[in-house]
Task: structure prediction
Amino acid sequence: MELIYKDVKYTEDMLITALKTRDDFDGLNQVLSKRVRNQDDELATIRGEVFDFFNDAFTPGDDELTFSIEQINTLLESISCNKLKSLFMVRATIDVTISGVEAEDSEAAEAEVQDQLTADWGSADGRIEEYTIDIRKVDAE
Result:
């Protein structure tokens, strides 16, 4: 079977593919419409929660409202947002034993470890400000 539409010839396979694609598109369209409705419902819920949060603390005539970080984080968590965070400095000690260091003597082994051992912070946030390496003991294996 062939169909000619606007001077273009469509084969049966082309028509079947077009119908399947249309059906797939209709199904996708229904899923997307449902997702948009769910997002609209979720947005309405979030707006309600935010309004209630501020309205509960508001007294007519107030010029300012004050909230604790804990109260704000509770609100943020309830609407699936990231909480506010503070910055901290952490001092840490790492005790490490390194074996298999090839060197001519203990001083060379110590120097090799001093040259090769580094401290690294794998997170995008935060950074290592300083670190020291204190070699306490070097023994032959």
